[in-house]
């Protein structure tokens, strides 16, 4: 569905992505693993248009995304759930969600219905619909960030480290939500440090190390222990 | 005592115009996290456009008002393109310095076209002085206060009831989140800038119509009053901008009465100094900054 070919992105003078190619397949969860500093978040920000790729292409069903502005990419249906949630802390939960529907204002209507369906999906957000988002717990903010992205009726959900800074029990809950979204047939690209948990849910995965994709496959095809060691530590076994 | 109350009344009226100037600054600062030093001089362009229409065509209040607004908005659009849209990302200081350069440019341009020291501006003639028991209320002060109140109410509706308002709030709340949520940041920033200019234009018109004469000093004057009121009220808070404006107006009116004109200027800066030391987040800034910090901790 989204074909990424030879993407190079620099951060200041540092080459963060040195030619990344991967495919995000329709109707499944593609997971990107890798140690800290491998360039995972850089890739998310590049796909969402906030960072500009130096070269390479990103084609959504054949249509080039590289060079578009962030809001145009959201309009195409590629929607990011950023790391650390990034909700609007001084706006109500409801307003946060309505913001998410901006991108499809041309296709009028349906905002109320979508709002209801998101609030049905996350009953805790319904309870707090008129509260300021800054008063929510970390887990609730994560739900809000997911809900906001769903309001855009995304073709692809890009999720950047949804487990960051959350208690383990909340992380389980967030992953159950992700699993449910996958089971509904949505296309999800998940960047995650918690390789163990991510591999339980992934249909497909890639390993990103030092700005390169060094491995791709399906969970179960490979020795998980070695993969996890590499994902966490960037360690390569001598072979 | 009567004097004190009378001064307070006058101060609140002038303060409402200061509040509008501070609101213009706050809108721009809230959305862009940058200061627009050329805000006052943009208003200056508008006021002189109005004065020109008045002296050449004997235009009435409404055409002069519209010309003032148009001049301020067009000058601001020029400032936005050159100092803000063209300077990207987090180069906040570069924007500020370049808007300072445009301040000089606009002021100089106005001074070239209008070489006299002062020019006449139409006033609200014929309105009767209002008496409230022992107190007097100048009719132009009442117009000033009511216009400011109506404008603030209108702004509140724009911010809470319209799509543009929601856009604007996302940008001032969390810029990165706004970008990933599909908000067209560049467009909203420009519209916010023009909205701020329109508010400033109204404030400039009211002030000029009250004084009945204008000079090229008005640009710097408006930037100073707006900035000071904004800082007293709390950077980035709309409520703070209004409170800061009203407080500044009242303190100035009292100082003018009890200390004279030079005492007024000293008092203004003393007020700014005290506000910065005692209330570095401003009169209304505390609560909001607190909520933001708390939200940050919860991450």
Automatic annotation (TrEMBL), chain A:
Family classification: Belongs to the ABC transporter superfamily.
Domain ABC transporter: 2-235
Keywords: Amino-acid transport, ATP-binding, Nucleotide-binding, Transport
Any GO MF annotation of the entry: ATP binding
Pfam family, one: ABC_tran
Species in which this protein is naturally found: Palleronia pontilimi
Keyword Magnesium: no
Name of this protein: ABC transporter ATP-binding protein
Gene3D superfamilies: P-loop containing nucleotide triphosphate hydrolases
InterPro entries listed in its UniProt record: AAA+_ATPase (IPR003593), ABC_transporter-like_ATP-bd (IPR003439), ABC_transporter-like_CS (IPR017871), BCAA_Transport_ATP-bd_LivF (IPR052156), P-loop_NTPase (IPR027417)
GO BP annotations listed: L-amino acid transport
Species classification: Bacteria, Pseudomonadati, Pseudomonadota, Alphaproteobacteria, Rhodobacterales
TrEMBL record, chain B:
Principal subcellular localization: membrane
Keyword Cell membrane: yes
UniProt-recorded Gene Ontology molecular function terms: transmembrane transporter activity
A Pfam family this chain is assigned to: BPD_transp_2
Cell compartment(s), UniProt: Cell membrane
Transmembrane annotation, as ranges: 12-31, 38-55, 61-79, 141-164, 185-207, 227-248, 269-287
Keyword list, A-Z: Amino-acid transport, Cell membrane, Membrane, Transmembrane, Transmembrane helix, Transport
GO cellular component: a single term: plasma membrane
Alphabetized InterPro entries for the sequence: ABC_transp_permease (IPR001851), BCAA_transport_permease (IPR052157)
Any GO BP annotation: amino acid transport
Stated family: Belongs to the binding-protein-dependent transport system permease family. LivHM subfamily.
Name this protein carries in UniProt: Branched-chain amino acid ABC transporter permease
Native species: Palleronia pontilimi
